[in-house]
Amino acid sequence: MMKKKYFINANIIDPHNNISEIGGLIIGEDGKIEGVGKKVNKNNIPSREKVIDLKENYIFPGIVDMRVFVGEPGYEYKENFRTLSNAALSGGVTSVVTMPNTDPIIDNVSIVDFLKRRGRDKSKINIFPTASLTKGTEGTNMTEFGLLQSKGIIAFTDGIKTIQNTRVMSRIMNSAKDLGSLIMQHAEDQELAENGMINDGIISTKLGLQGIPEIAELIIIERDLTLLEEYNCRYHISQISSGKAVEIIKDRKDKVRFSCGVSINNLSLNENDIGDFRTFLKLSPPLRTEDDRLSLVQGLNDGTIDVIVSDHKPEDEEQKRLTFAQAATGATGIETLLSLSLELYHNGSVKLEKIIAALTSNPAKILKINKGNLSVGNDADFCIVDINKPWIVKQENLVSKSKNTSIENKRLQGKVTNTYVKGQELYNI
Amino acid sequence: MATKTKAIKISQKHLLGIQDLSINDVSLILKEAEKFIELNKSKNKKLDLLKGKTQINLFFEPSTRTQSSFELAGKRLGADVMSMNITNSAIKKGETLIDTAMTLNAMHPDIIVIRHQDSGACNLLSQKVNCAVLNAGDGRREHPTQALLDALTILNRKKKIQGLKVAICGDILHSRVARSNIYLLNMLGAEVNIVAPSNLLPKDIEKFGVNIFSNMKKGVKDCDIVMMLRLQNERMSSSFLSSNREYYEYYGLTQDKLEYAKSDSIIMHPGPMNRGIEIDTKLADDTNMSVVKEQVELGVAIRMACLKIFCE
Known about the structure:
- The complex is a heterodimer of chains A (429) and B (312).
- With 429 residues, chain A is of the alpha/beta class.
- Helix content of chain A is 28%, strand content 23%.
- Chain A contains twelve helices and 18 strands.
- In chain A, the strands form four sheets. In chain A, strands 1, 2, 3, 4, 5, 16, 17 and 18 form an eight-stranded mixed β-sheet that branches. A four-stranded parallel β-sheet of chain A has the order 6-7-8-9, with helices on both faces.
- Chain A is globular, with a radius of gyration of 21 Å.
- In chain A, 56% of the residues are buried.
- Chain B has helices at residues 23-41, 65-76, 97-105, 121-128, 144-158, 176-187, 216-220, 244-251, 255-258, 281-285, 292-311, and strands spanning 54-59, 80-84, 111-116, 132-138, 165-169, 191-195, 211-213, 225-228, 266-268.
- The longest helix of chain B is centred in the last third of the chain and has 20 residues, at 292-311.
- Chain B is globular, with a radius of gyration of 19 Å.
- The A-B interface holds A 200-202, 204-209, 211, 213, 276-277, 318, 321-326 and B 19, 96-98, 116-121, 123-124, 138-142, 176, 179, 202-205, 207-208.
């Protein structure tokens, strides 16, 4: 049994419970939340108890990151469950949804047991694994949604790949409807995006790199949402990258129920950041124009976009010290997800409550998990944040096993100082 | 020794693309090259300007004229020239470009000339070596010495570039020659028309300050220069185009289309040519109009100038 903990004088933001106020937090001996909000203050805590005064620093629910790649099994040299959870904790992330693109791919029941065991033994955070939609992510044969989710699979996605075949997609949706499964689609038409590396536009023409047109994303979104009207299942678009996608989604949300995410990279950076062939900014979906970025920020503001993800994709140096065409796609980002998101608050583009909802309560609601909130009786997963603390992202200081950050040398404002999981402090600065 | 102009110096350490050059850089290179034109025609072609210097040619893509042109240029200036044979090298055994660069760098070359199938490969190389890097073509990004030799050829024939109208025709999408020429011709004050089927146009190319035509007759109208690009055969298989026959009909340079250009217009081509696909074989051989051989000849002079300037 751990000791009871009292925090007071904190700026508490808990979108799930509509809390945004100065108050306190009480953690019971069982690691559950016993009290939260302005009712918790010095006057109603016994004087013999040790009280931690947070001096108006912030308490957020532990972040739920819906799109994370871990290297286990198969790519342990890029990231394993232990290094992932340490990186996550340093960024205030206490729950992650892991992608199935491992070696072997997570597409059958026996490998899920292995995954759950490794996740439980090696990781200090909550791991919610996904399985692939199709066997081997080959886009043809469905996996066993029912059996897999009974083993603890939270959702189904081919991760870095898209279901290209419309017939297969319609059957996937139909099955998911029967079984109540959550489908997460990486929206990109493979043919239109073939060999593509960055946004199709003046930068790709200048750099001489094959572009990925925004229509590659729009075609799949339009197709899936049309299918969804017929086969109404739980459907989530993993990430969008263009202003036009925001328009389509905004329009369709009146007609069908679905949700949509965006990578913090696409919210914070644009294609110009690629500069002189910086392979760490080779991302999928690609960074697009500043207008696209602004539309995404607007989409987050008006609720068109539900979730912000890190799209944490560790790649070792060998995969990035190559020409742009040869380099692997993706960037790490789990430990900078919150700080980089706070940039949108500091520069006045998005309200703090909205950002925190997109990082905590919204993903939890989509996933139907009791995480990302500070409800009384729930596990005390939360982080304490000095929202103004300035710091600079340096590769050598990153916790993740791979150092392919998209924001090397970026100045950020706001840093997680402590992270708690089930009432236990697992990280402090 | 050739006369040394101390007045202007090149602004760049490497020659990676026309994009990085200033107009002063370009005129420095063109002036220097002019000095070598006569030398290359004379009996004794050998100088010792680069005596004791080491030049490494690193060609990851097959190339006849560019590679031999650079090799000859280096030798005529007295450099020790080594051409790496990629097919037998460690690269075939899986060595990365950066590792190759480190290895070569340890041999203290003074200049590396690189041709690579990936855009930006020369930029990557230049970050890892101490010597100057000359780009001999990277992916579809840039081929600066080709654009410079084209400019020198135009100057030789037309005595100016300012105010000329140039049509660049063909596969612009995949062409580094087109990109470098657009930058350079714009910089030197020419008006550039781009003539291509829409499938072979890169996105947002109009933002480069060029006029776009999908009709060749309109595109070459009143042009002083008609620059044809090579069409690679694999473009047919990936649905960029329907057939050679149709391409030739609409975008091949034939007498009837050339009629629309100025009567004293010249034809250029970076080579190697696909006769009967992008150019009529008679036009290609018409020495009054076609300056293809001159381009090759002046290419050596341009590369000598670049080697000399960037070695210093």
